[in-house]
Amino acid sequence: MGISRGDDMSADERWIARSEALTRLGVKAQTLYAYVSRGRIAARPDPTDPRRSLYAVSDVARLCGEGGAEADGPEVRAPVMGAAARGEADIQSSVSLIADGRLFYRGLDAVQLAATATIETAARALWDARETNPFADLKPRIDPIVGGSTQRRVLAVLGRRAIEDRALRTHDPVSLKREAASLLSEVVDSVSGPGPRLYLHQRLARGFKAAERDSHLIRRALVLGADAGLDDAVLATRAAAGGGAPLAGAVLAGATTLGGTPLTEIDDVVAYVGEARRDPTGAARRWIGLKGCAPGFAADTEFGRVDPRAPALLDAADLTADLKAVWTEGEAAGGLPPGFGLALALTARRLDLGPTGAGDLLMLGRLIGLLAHAVDQAADGSPIRARLRYVGPEPGSH
Question: Which InterPro entries does the entry mention (predicted)?
Answer without folding.
Answer: Citrate_synthase_sf, DNA-bd_dom_put_sf
